[in-house]
Amino acid sequence: MTREQLENYHDIIVRLKDLKTTIVTDSVKGSLDEYPYINHSVTLHGVRRDEKARQEVKLLEQEKDAIDGFIDGIEDVRVRNILDWKYRKGFGWNEIAAHSGRSISAEKEYSRRFFKRNLQK
Predict the structure, then answer these.
(1) Threshold 0.90, pTM exceeds
(2) Domain boundaries, the chain
(3) DSSP 21-61
(4) Are 31 and 20 in contact (CB under 8 A)?
(5) What is the end-to-end Cα distance of the chain in Å, rounded?
(6) Cα-based distances in Å from 35 to 2, 30, 40
(7) Mean pLDDT by 10 residues, the chain (121 residues)
């Protein structure tokens, strides 16, 4: 896992949300051409774009799951909390410091040391 992959977490979530709203099928009301002209629903959807969007959703969900698994697998509770707040919840350093009860510089330094020791460049 790289720092860049972690930093992409928010963008992955935003893109997933956007794609999932575009895959939605739509339905309209229609009626038969001949008597008794019964009103019924007709479902509309685009096949090519939907399939491409589904493939992208699958890929993005795999990336998201990999990041979630990485964060959840960290044994150091302090680092796990910092990464959860920073990347999953999108907190700034002020909010992270407020939640942890430590200073901003202490939390930044602790996470920097973790990245230096454990993450690929």
Answers:
(1) no
(2) 1-73, 75-121
(3) HHS--EEEEEE-SSTT--EEEEEE--HHHHHHHHHHHHHHH
(4) no
(5) 9
(6) 65, 13, 13
(7) 92 91 66 73 64 89 96 96 96 96 96 88 52
